[in-house]
Amino acid sequence: MIYTPLTKKALKLCFEAHKDQVDKSGMPYVFHPFHLAEQMETEETVVTALLHDVAEDTPCSVADLAAMGFPRSVTDALTLLTHDEAVPYREYVAAVKTNPIAAAVKLADLRHNSDLSRLDTVDEAALLRREKYQRAIALLLDEGDAGGTEDPE
Question: The whole model's pTM is what?
C-alpha cells in the first residue's frame, strides 16, 4: 500500500464508514476495501479502492467526499463505481471500463468478490454472483461481456 497524506485520510474514512459493517460471512467489511487497496499501485487507485463502497453503502455521498478534499480523479472514478440500480449491470460495467482508475479498482473488487473461499456457505446465489462477476471481469479485460442485467445480490 502507498502511504501518503491522502491515502491515510482515505484509510481513516474507510475504517470509520465501514467499522460496524460485516460481509456475508460476518467478517468485518473493512477488510474488503483494505484488501483491494493493497493491490493498487498509485495514490489515486489506493484511495479509490478504499472509498469504493462508501457512497454506495453508507450515508456519505461522492459529493461529500469531494467536499472533504478528495481529488476529482478519485471522485469521478467513485461516481462510476457507485452502481445506480436503475442502470443495467452490463451498462454499468461498460461505463466503469472507460475510466482507468475505476476499471482497476472494479477488477480487483470483482476478483475478491468472486472468491468463494470467503464464504461460510456456498449456495446457488453465491454461484450466480460469481458467474455474473466473471462475465464482468471478461468485459473489463475485453474477453467478453457482462451478460444480463440481473443482480443476484
Answer: 0.90
